[in-house]
């Protein structure tokens, strides 16, 4: 295996441990995928049936956009994960990493007709950058793939209505930063809406300024890497477990 792919496998395996540490897990369901360098039509995905803390660099499965394993593997791939992630990877060349989660706060906001608000610190950072996709049932049908990609368009994150959250990025660290922001925005919104009294609205000018300042960290990824590795340090992960 070339060193570039091995490095990305380690980063993706670490990301599964980050999600596990944060509680962004749904038993053996949901996925984080990463495009393989030099082979734009293949990506890495978790073996179906393993917990997130059991994913390693070696047992990640490399599959093509058509769902066919690109290398020998004894592990199956979840059909729903393939449909969602292959559609985004295939349509967005800049989406090297794609994340999908079913957190309680994320699904709760996805069930609200108005969707995500932009009147808090985190929601404002995502102003103008949140897409929506209407629920069509369990995503196991190929025909939904193009509609998923069309719903996302050029935006960074998407709320799958009545379903969950999706995030994209140029690498694992970048995608994690924006997924974390989206998840925090959902958590804050759920808590704020549970309190009596009206929420304080922000003007579009303030929202735009906040979103612009948040995005100003790109393309430098120092902050994104710091956020990512801080979670692993807090979890006390032995990096040898990623192999």
From TrEMBL:
Pfam families: Aldolase_II. SMART domains: Aldolase_II. Residues 10-190 form the Class II aldolase/adducin N-terminal domain. Coiled coil: none annotated. SUPFAM superfamilies: AraD/HMP-PK domain-like. InterPro entries: Aldolase-II_Adducin_sf (IPR051017), Aldolase_II/adducin_N (IPR001303), Aldolase_II/adducin_N_sf (IPR036409). NCBIfam families: PRK07044.1. PANTHER family: ADDUCIN (PTHR10672), PROTEIN HU-LI TAI SHAO (PTHR10672:SF3). Belongs to the aldolase class II family. This is Class II aldolase/adducin family protein. It comes from Ottowia pentelensis.
């Amino acid at each position: 295996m070339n060193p570039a792919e091995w490095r990305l496998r380690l980063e993706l395996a670490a990301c599964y441990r980050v999600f596990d540490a944060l509680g962004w897990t749904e038993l053996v369901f949901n996925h984080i995928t990463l495009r393989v360098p030099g082979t734009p039509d293949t990506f890495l995905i978790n073996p179906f049936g393993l917990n997130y803390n059991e994913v390693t660099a070696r047992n990640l499965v490399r599959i093509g956009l058509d769902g066919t394993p690109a290398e020998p593997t004894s592990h199956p791939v979840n059909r729903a994960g393939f449909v969602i992630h292959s559609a985004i990877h295939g349509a967005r060349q800049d989406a090297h990493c794609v994340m999908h989660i079913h957190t309680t706060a994320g699904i709760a906001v996805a069930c609200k007709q108005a969707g995500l608000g932009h009147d808090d610190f985190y929601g404002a950072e995502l102003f103008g950058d949140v897409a929506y996709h209407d629920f069509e049932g369990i995503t196991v049908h190929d025909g939904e793939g193009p509609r998923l990609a069309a719903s996302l368009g050029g935006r960074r994150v998407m709320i799958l209505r009545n379903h969950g959250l999706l995030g994209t990025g140029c690498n694992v660290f970048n995608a994690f930063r924006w997924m974390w922001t989206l998840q925090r925005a959902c958590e804050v919104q759920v808590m704020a809406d549970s309190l009596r009294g009206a929420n304080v609205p922000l003007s579009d000018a303030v929202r735009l300024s906040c979103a612009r300042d948040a995005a100003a960290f790109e393309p430098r990824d120092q902050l994104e890497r710091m956020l990512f590795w801080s979670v692993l340090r807090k979890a006390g992960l032995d990096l040898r477990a990623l192999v």
